[in-house]
Design brief:
Layout (H helix, E strand, L loop, with lengths): L2 H38 L5 E10 L16 H12 L2 H11 L3 H7 L1 H10 L1 E6 L7 E9 L2 H58 L8 H34 L15 H20 L7 H19 L11 H78 L4 E6 L12 H26 L6 H7 L23
Antiparallel strand pairs: 1-3, 1-4, 2-3
């Protein structure tokens, strides 16, 4: 657009203002008056504001761990969810009888949505774990009602939050109690199994290994001593049987017959073999050598001629042989008992590796159950202390710092500002109306309008300016 066109357009606007100024003033005045009237009839809006403070717990967490996970950054979300919940707002609406006409026309959902728009929540988090403040504001057209509603929302939130925390702590305590009872039953079952196993395999436990080995050594010594006594008894019996005429007190210094010596040696070797087999295998070199000597002695006895026994035997000798036979039976019984006990202790020693493996498995299960029970017991004690803190309100808690009061002055609308804007909008409306009327009006008011309707081949020679009539002077 050229400069000439801009000048012409400005001139056109000036002509519109010149010709339509009365219309502009009329429309602007009417529109401004109407807007001011509307502003004056707007209802007053009041705000009820209450401040809620979230105090941190008094007891440090390193002494009593909390069971409620409530971070300061989550408190605003918790506050908004609790305050703006449908059930909570509906209870407040029913309690104070809010939005009666709206409920009748559009239902309760519309009333709850409108109330949510009228609630404003702001937060101010304190650094370093200090108290955090929440500001809850409710707007309405009744100053007493907005204060009452704001206080009701704050108090109901605090009570609900306290109830929720106590329920959460109690739920945690109940859960840990159930788990603790289950763990205690499992631990008692493991203890019972371990006790039954120890009692059923008494003497075969790894800690009794040294005592068993000591008993085996002592029994081997006793068995060897008994075997030696048996060999002496057999030797004495053979001497008495072979030389019944000899004096009993001198028989030990006499020279025994070869048969008696071989039999005595055979008995000693057999006794020694029996002793060796109690703690050695048949393939052991000492056992093999002893068996070879026994076989050789038996062959020597078979090659010797049989010696005849004396037909007559002294009654004293016979009595002596009976005494030796009874002593031999007693020693054989003792030896059998010793061998039985020795085999029993040896079996316990041999069973130790297997019992140790089985006991390790049972002990491992028992220790696992015991550690699990102790861990749950500590958590249960901690949950109980946290529950006591909640019941005494020594944990994190909300408290109303400044309850809402009935406001003395409305916060909206700002009538001075709205009246000024009404005058401005009226002036703008008058200008727009004048411009629109000018566009509708088809009369020629300037040479521009004339050029627009004249044919292109005609040339405009000039424009006669407006001629005003001059009134004649009086007396002329």
């Amino acid at each position: 657009m050229s400069m000439y066109s801009i000048v012409e357009r400005l001139a056109e606007y000036r002509m519109i203002l010149f010709y339509r100024w009365r219309f502009i003033v009329l429309v602007a005045s009417g529109l401004a008056l109407a807007l001011i009237t509307v502003v004056e009839f707007l209802p007053d809006i009041y705000e009820g504001t209450t401040t809620i403070v979230a105090y941190p717990r008094k007891v440090p967490e390193k002494y009593v761990a909390t069971t409620v996970m409530d971070e300061p950054s989550d408190r605003l979300n918790l506050l908004q969810q609790e305050v703006l919940s449908y059930t909570r707002l509906l209870e407040v609406i029913n309690k104070f009888g809010l939005y009666g006409k709206l409920v009748q026309k559009q239902g309760r959902d519309a009333a709850v949505q409108l109330m949510r728009k009228q609630i404003k929540i702001q937060t101010n988090h304190a650094g370093g774990g200090g108290a955090s403040a929440f500001t809850l504001t409710f707007t309405g057209d009744n100053p007493r009602l907005v204060a009452a509603v704001a206080n009701e929302l704050a108090n109901s939130f605090i009570l609900k939050n306290l109830s929720n925390r106590q329920q959460q702590v109690q739920g945690t305590t109940d859960f840990l109690s159930e788990e603790l009872e289950t763990a205690r039953a499992g631990l008692e079952s493991q203890e019972t199994q371990l006790r039954i196993y120890r009692m059923s395999h008494l003497g075969q436990m790894p800690e009794q290994m040294s005592a068993n080995l000591q008993a085996v050594g002592q029994l081997q010594v006793q068995y060897q001593a008994t075997s030696d006594k048996l060999a002496q008894l057999e030797e004495q019996k053979l001497l008495i049987e072979d030389t019944p005429e000899a004096d009993l007190t001198l028989r030990s210094s006499g020279t025994p017959l070869p048969v008696s010596m071989l039999r005595s040696n055979l008995l000693q070797e057999e006794s020694r073999l029996s002793t060796l087999l109690t703690h050695m295998t048949p393939a052991h070199p000492d056992v093999v050598a002893c068996q070879a000597r026994i076989t050789e002695l038996k062959h020597q006895l078979e090659r010797l001629p049989n010696e005849e026994k004396p037909v007559l035997m002294d009654h004293a000798v016979e009595a002596r042989i009976q005494v030796l036979d009874k002593e031999r039976e007693r020693l054989l019984g003792d030896q059998s008992g010793i061998k039985e006990r020795l085999n029993s202790y040896q079996a316990k020693v041999d069973a130790v590796p297997l019992r140790q493996e089985q006991l390790s498995s049972l002990t491992r299960d028992y220790e696992t159950a015991r550690d699990h029970y102790r861990s749950l017991l500590e958590k249960h004690y901690s949950a109980q202390m946290a529950s006591e803190l909640e019941s005494k309100q020594d944990a994190d808690r909300f408290e109303v710092l400044d309850p809402a009061t009935s406001p003395d002055h409305p916060t909206a609308p700002n009538r001075r500002l709205l009246c000024a804007l009404s005058v401005l909008f009226g002036l703008i409306g008058g200008l727009v109306a004048a411009f629109c009327r000018e566009q509708i009006d088809s009369s020629i008011k300037s040479d521009v309008d004339l050029l627009e309707i004249l044919p292109a081949e005609l040339e405009l020679l000039g424009v006669v300016s407006r001629i005003y009539a001059i009134e004649p002077a009086h007396g002329h």
